[in-house]
């Protein structure tokens, strides 16, 4: 049995679908109920990952555990090792942690302290582990969905700074392999897309998928900061803006790990945009 946290999100949802399709018994964890169009036959467990004790009955009898820290869970909380202890006591043998490439490129970044703490706890646990350090998600472009729907406009900073954003479906596919197959224990993979694309190029890909023009309006760093601060902690906002605006060379490089694990190239941004078209219509 495989327990998947973040199960209704960008990564968790395709991961649950891939595991269920492969015939695995999956338990999908989220706080809210599963949406009506969720893959059939998947068991749901309602739990709050901020309260580790609520995960104990969910993990009981599981073989593998996909651990994703969404939203506020990237902020301070109970000691990360306590959750790994609970998993071990429940009989879990393998854990796959979704982390961030920032832990590789900017060790000690305040914005990623919690993920870093979880990486350490996973490494120090007695479990077989794989760590997935993802670059920026293609799905971050969903932040533009409302203005594309309403005004066919994208407002974003750093219009011409390219990053190899990764399709969450590729992260899910790599996670499914690491959860189900041997040979990935103790590995840390950096997951990127197949090419670096700028926000302006991403907006153009969305326009192409729509078959309509989309106007790009470049925001200043300060404007972007004010916007992001409405729903992200300050430290995370500044860390995010640094990566988007002043990426290090390693953050602009296309990594080999998606292709190495999946034996196929990573999906380009345009494929994500075409698949996610209903959000922008
Ligand atoms: N975005 C990026 O560029 C990027 C880059 C590297 C790494 N990451 C990592 O990926 C994470 C985001 O993944 P995503 O985009 O797939 O997430 P997402 O689409 O925002 O989905 C979040 C999922 O987690 C569940 N969830 C949220 N808080 C929870 C809680 N307290 N207890 C239990 N379930 C909870 C949500 O369901 P409910 O709300 O119903 O609980 C939902 O299923 C980030 O937080 C970060 O750790 C992101």
Features:
281 residues; Rossmann fold; binds NADP nicotinamide-adenine-dinucleotide phosphate; 9 strands; alpha/beta
Note down, in words, how this protein is organized.
The chain is of the alpha/beta class and 281 residues long. The chain has a seven-stranded parallel β-sheet, sandwiched between helices. The chain is globular. Helix 1 (12-21) packs across helix 7 (168-180), helix 8 (199-210) crosses helix 13 (269-275) and helix 9 (221-228) packs antiparallel against helix 10. It has a domain at 2-137 and 167-192 and 249-266: 3-Layer(aba) Sandwich (Rossmann fold), CATH 3.40.50.720. It is built from 14 helices and nine strands. It starts with a strand and ends with a helix. NADP nicotinamide-adenine-dinucleotide phosphate is lined by residues 5-12, 29-32, 47-50, 68-71, 73-74, 98, 100, 115, 134, 136-137, 139-140, 168.
CATH fourth-tier homologous superfamily of the domain at 2-137 and 167-192 and 249-266: NAD(P)-binding Rossmann-like Domain
Shape: globular
Arrangement of strands in the largest sheet: 3-2-1-4-5-6-8
Name the helicity range.
40-55%
Main sheet, how many strands, which sense, barrel?
7 strands, parallel
Query: Which strand-content bin applies to the residues?
Result: 15-25%
Bound ligands, each once = NADP nicotinamide-adenine-dinucleotide phosphate
Structural class: alpha/beta
Annotated CATH topology of the domain at 2-137 and 167-192 and 249-266: Rossmann fold
